[in-house]
Specification:
The protein is α/β, with parallel strands linked by helices. The chain has three domains: about 5-85, Ubiquitin-like (UB roll) (Roll); about 90-175, Elongation Factor Tu (Ef-tu), domain 3, CATH 2.40.30.10; about 190-315, Nucleotide-binding domain of ferredoxin-NADP reductase (FNR) module (Rossmann fold), CATH 3.40.50. It is about 20% helix and about 30% strand. It has helices at about 20-25, 60-65, 160-165, 200-215, 235-245, 270-275, 290-305; strands spanning about 5, 10, 45-50, 70, 80-85, 90-100, 105-115, 120-125, 130-135, 145-150, 170-175, 190-195, 220-225, 250-255, 265, 285-290, 310-315. The protein has a six-stranded antiparallel sheet with strand order 9-8-11-6-7-10. A six-stranded parallel sheet has the order 15-14-13-12-16-17, with helices on both faces. Strands 2-1-5-3-4 form a five-stranded mixed sheet. A hairpin with a 4-residue loop joins strand 6 (about 90-100) and strand 7. The two termini are about 40 Å apart. The relative contact order is 0.13. The protein binds FE2/S2 (inorganic) cluster.
Length: about 325
C-alpha cells in the first residue's frame, strides 16, 4: 500500500476510496463542493510523490506545473505527500449588492468582490468553512460586479440561503475564480457558437458580453434552451443585445411550446445544432449544461470541423457547478 501523508498526518485509504474520502474519514475537513472534479474546491498540492493523471484533468497548465491536483479525483498508486490549497486565506469577502428572481427556477445575484476573473469562470460561495457551491460568473470584469445565476433549490445549501437569508449589504466568502471556459480574444474574427441549457446560460452570457466588450467582430450564435418557455430567462436583454450587435444571432430554444409562443425554436439541441450548423471549421465553441447534451455536441462539433482546443465545455450537476 502506498504511504499517503497530509502535512504531518498519515492517511489510510481503503479499496476504491479517493483521497477526499480518506481525508474526511481521518477527520480532516476538506473544502469541497461537487465531489466530481468540477468545482476545484478540494484542490491540493503535492509536496513529494507522483500524482495520478486523472487527478489533474481540467486544471490549467500552470496549476499542473505547480503540482496541484483534485483530491476527489485522486486514487494514489504510489507514495504521496501533499497539502490542501483552498484554504481560508485564499478566499475573498464578497458583498451582496443586488438580488432578483428571474423565473421559477433562477435567482440572479450580484456581488462586489475584490477578485480577478474572466466571464465564464466559476467561483465557490462558501456557506461554511468547508462546504460551498460553485457558480459560473455571468458578468464581464469591466461591469464591476460578479453576477451569478443560481438554480433555486428548496433545500439548497447555498441557493436557499442566498435567496431567503442573505440580505443586501450582507457578506459571504468567495474562492478565487477558476476554470478555463472563458472568452479567448486570440482571434476576434472567429465565428463563435454558444450553446447552453438552463443556467448554462450564465457562463455563456458572460462570455458573450466579454467578447462584445473586447471588440469581437466574428459572428456569434447563441442558443439558450429550456424545457418550456417559462423556464427561459434573460430573453429581453439578449434580444435587445442582438438588435444592437449585427454579428450576434440569438436563438431561444424549447423542448415544448404548448402555447406556440412566437420567436422560439422547438426541439432538442442535439438535433438542432447539427441541422443548423453543418460545418464548424474555425469556430470557437462553448457548450454548457447537462452532461449528455454537452458530450454529444462536443463530439459533433469536433467531427464537423472545430479544433478540439477550440471547444470549451462546462457540465452542470446538482452538486457541481451551477449557473
Ligand atoms: S470537490 Fe473536488 S473538484 Fe469539486
Amino acid at each position: 500500500m502506498p504511504t499517503i501523508t497530509y502535512e504531518n498526518q498519515q492517511i489510510t485509504l481503503h479499496d476504491q476510496q479517493n483521497l477526499l474520502e480518506g481525508l474526511e474519514q481521518a477527520g480532516v475537513e476538506v473544502p469541497c463542493s461537487c465531489s466530481s472534479g468540477v468545482c476545484q474546491g478540494c484542490m491540493a498540492q503535492a509536496l513529494k510523490g507522483s500524482i495520478p493523471p486523472a487527478a489533474q484533468i481540467g486544471l490549467s497548465a500552470n496549476q499542473r506545473r505547480l503540482n496541484y491536483f483534485l483530491t476527489c479525483q485522486c486514487y494514489p498508486k504510489s507514495d504521496l505527500h501533499f497539502t490542501l490549497t483552498n484554504n481560508l486565506e485564499s478566499r475573498a469577502t464578497a458583498t451582496l449588492v443586488e438580488k432578483r428572481v428571474l423565473n421559477q427556477r433562477v435567482l440572479m445575484v450580484r456581488f462586489k468582490a475584490d477578485i480577478d476573473w474572466r466571464a465564464g469562470q466559476h467561483v465557490i460561495i462558501w456557506r461554511t468553512e468547508t462546504r460551498g457551491r460553485a457558480y459560473s460568473i455571468a458578468s464581464s470584469p469591466d461591469e464591476g460586479y460578479v453576477e451569478l445565476h443560481v438554480r433555486r433549490r428548496p433545500n439548497g445549501l447555498v441557493s436557499h440561503w442566498l435567496e431567503h437569508e442573505l440580505e443586501l449589504g450582507g457578506h459571504c466568502q468567495f474562492s478565487p475564480a477558476t476554470g478555463d471556459t472563458y472568452y479567448s480574444p486570440a482571434m476576434p474574427g472567429q465565428p463563435v457558437l454558444l450553446v447552453g441549457t438552463g443556467t448554462g446560460l450564465a457562463p455563456l452570457s458572460g462570455i458573450l458580453r466579454q467578447a462584445l466588450n473586447e471588440g469581437h467582430h466574428g459572428d456569434i450564435y447563441l442558443y439558450a434552451a429550456a424545457g418550456e418557455p417559462q423556464y427561459l430567462y434573460l430573453l429581453d436583454e439578449l434580444t435587445e443585445l442582438a438588435q444592437k450587435h449585427q454579428a450576434l444571432h440569438f436563438f431561444p430554444v424549447v423542448h415544448r411550446n404548448p402555447d406556440q409562443q412566437p420567436n422560439l425554436l422547438e426541439g432538442d439541441l442535439v438535433d438542432l445544432i447539427p441541422q443548423r450548423h453543418p460545418k464548424l471549421r474555425r469556430h470557437l465553441v462553448y457548450l454548457c449544461g447537462a452532461q449528455p447534451m454537452v458530450e454529444v455536441l462536443k463530439e459533433y462539433c469536433f467531427y464537423s470541423g472545430a479544433l478540439m482546443e477550440d471547444i470549451f465545455v462546462k457540465t452542470f450537476s446538482p452538486g457541481g457547478v451551477g449557473g
